[in-house]
What we know:
Elements: H1 3-15, H2 33-39, H3 46-55, H4 73-86, H5 104-113, H6 160-170, E1 173-176, E2 180-183, E3 185-188, H7 197-200, H8 214-217, E4 232-236, E5 266-270, E6 281-285, E7 292-299, E8 309-318, E9 324-333, E10 348-350, H9 357-367, E11 368-370
Parallel strand pairs: 2-11, 3-4, 3-7
Antiparallel strand pairs: 1-9, 4-5, 5-6, 7-8, 8-9, 9-10
Amino acid sequence: MTAGNIQSQHCALLGWGLVILLTPGWSQAEVSTAWLEKTRKVEAPPEMVERIRQTGWLDLDFSCNAGKVSMKRQDYLDCIRVEAAMLPPMDPSKRSHFGLHYDPYKYFTCRSETERNDGGCTKYKLRRNEAEPVWPYPEAPPLAWPEAPDPPVYQPWMSSEAYFDALCEREAGKFIYRTVEDVEGVYQVRPMIKASDLTLMDRYVMENPYHYSLGEAASLGASQVGPDKYRFRETSLYEPKERWDAWRLEFRHPSVFEKAKPGDKYIQYSEYDGHDLKSVIKTFKQSLESEFGYVWRGITRPNDRVHGIAGGELLVIDLKTNEILGLWRGFVRSGTKSSERVWWLAPHSCPQRTGDSEELARFILEILRPKR
């Protein structure tokens, strides 16, 4: 078949509405840019997807990073194409699960036109990335989260500031229903994941910026363990992917770097002396010691993210009955309705908070009072 015939067949395929990337043998150079711009949909043939997956390039801290591995230009283009093709389409019913600028097509075209190590295109693939809760006792009744107020606080005439003030007055606060004495340890039902700067600057994608703290995301639980605190803090097998410099061996107990074995279900952190983080010992457990724990979630109110407002709830609970012992509901506001960016590390907040993990620990310790 001549080159002219091939081109004619290519045009005929486009006329039938088929995506050229499904045609075996076509390379990136042969893809119709006009077709991509028309459909705004990036696809990749199965053989390309499988080849790129096997390279491990998608698993790099910065995907398809040619600065970390040696790859030809065509390999790089194939890699970003596969990554973009694997991104899900925007789901309008879950708008807050996708970043403000989310667009797989723009992600692909942006990375194909910029330096390979330029992270400026990442905003086009930004999605919610939160750990799921791990409930230790399946036989416990479902947790009854508080209902949103009806009628809602929001009124169409409200500015961002007025709406925030109304939410603070009507809903925000710390509520303690029952305290417990002589508690030895606490279970973190839902871990926090360290948020990237892009996540912290996006009005939608972060589920609960109010209760977020980097110390809580670090997972060692030092704010809750030690003298005058709990003997241990437990969590699921989730551990942060990032191992920043402070996690180097000379600053941590060797147990911190151990991996789970078959049958392990939980992680326990203990033995903190209150001063040296190297004293914290990590132990894998097959069963839970904690009888009490805490869990968080983001909450949604009408038009909240549009106005730069986000809310969250943290519950302290009896793990075997899911009785709610305490509730901390708060809201943060960053920017206005017209602002493109927010900065969730320094928002207006109510009740006012600093984002320190010690602040979160004090609320839990006030309800679950440690054994002296």
